[in-house]
Every structure is written in C-alpha cells, then in structure tokens.
Amino acid sequence: MNQSLESFLRFVNLTTSGLLAGSLGFGEQALVPGWQRELPQHADPRSRALTALTDARNYFNAIGPVALGTAVTLAVGSRDVKPLKRALDAAAAISLAGVLAATIMVTVPINKELEGQAPTDYPSERSQSLAKNWSRAHAIRTTLGVSAFLCAVASNLARSSHAK
C-alpha cells in the first residue's frame, strides 16, 4: 500500500481505537455493536440520553469494527515497515478483536440475562455472580481497548524503515 493510504489508515485507526478505549474506560459505554443493550432499562437520565443519541446515530456502532478493520489492514498490508511496527499493529488488531469478542459474547449476553430476571428486594446469588462476571469481562475488554490504543500510538511513533 502506498504511504499516503497507510498514513490515512493510521490516522483512522488511532482515532477510532482512542475513541473506543475512552468509551470503555470512561462511562462504561462501549462503541461496538450491541453495546446499547448493556444499559439497564431504568438507567439514569444521562444514560437514557446517550441511548437516545445512539438510536439517532447508529454509526457509533461502527467505531469498534472500523478500528479493528484498520488495525488488521495495517498489520497485514503495510509494506517496508520494521518488525516492531508490524508487531505493534498485530497486537492492536488482536486487542481490538478481543474487545469486540468480549462485548458480543460475554457482556451483552450477561446483561440480557440480568435484564430478564424479575425484580426482587435482594439480589440472588445468580445475579450477584452474573454482575461479578460482567465486571470482570468489562475490566478485560477495557484493558484490551486501552492496550490497542497504546499499541496504535507506539506503532505511529515507531520509525518506518523508509524514514530517515
């Protein structure tokens, strides 16, 4: 791929992975497909407003896949890059794939199950276990999201083999 296309892809990757990492770490709002199903129906007004904004702008769901797509493209398609830069691009792609997988396969199903439970005065053992598992999965995907962003930053700062 030519250098201007690679520069554009690096910009898009850095921007989208940064937005994704920020959304995971601050406010617990993952910008990946299905994340709005993680919000409880009785959420506070700010969460409801965010959900309404997302319903109006479904392109937020594309941030995670775009970050992953650009990271994979950079890891596979970049030419004349040093091994360190290629490794950082691959690590970013793997981390972003982990974010999407954790969201789609773990946190969304757990949240659906929690939403399906009847309201009670005291949480059951099952709901406490699910909440604990959701928190762990969220911590993992947040760590992966931040790691992907840091790898993208490091890859952008690493010198290419054709740079002098």
Describe the protein in words.
With 164 residues, the protein is mainly alpha-helical. The protein has one domain. Helices cover 71% and strands 0% of the residues. The protein has five helices and no strands. Helix 1 crosses helix 3. The relative contact order is 0.18.
| Secondary-structure content class | mainly alpha
Are there runs of 5+ residues with pLDDT below 50, and where? none
Tell me the β content.
Answer: under 5%
Rg, nearest Å: 18 Å
What's the domain count?
A: 1
Helix content: over 70%
* Mean of pLDDT: 80
Number of strands: 0
What's the order of the H and E elements? HHHHH
- Net shape: elongated
**Termini gap:** 19 Å
Q: So how many helices? A: 5
Largest sheet: none
SSE layout:
Layout (H helix, E strand, L loop, with lengths): L2 H23 L19 H12 L6 H15 L5 H34 L8 H33 L7
Helix pairs in contact: 1-3, 1-5, 3-4, 4-5
Which key terms come to mind for this protein?
elongated, 5 helices, mainly alpha, 164 residues
Structure described in brief:
The chain has 164 residues and is mostly helical. The chain has one domain (3-157). The protein contains five helices and no strands.
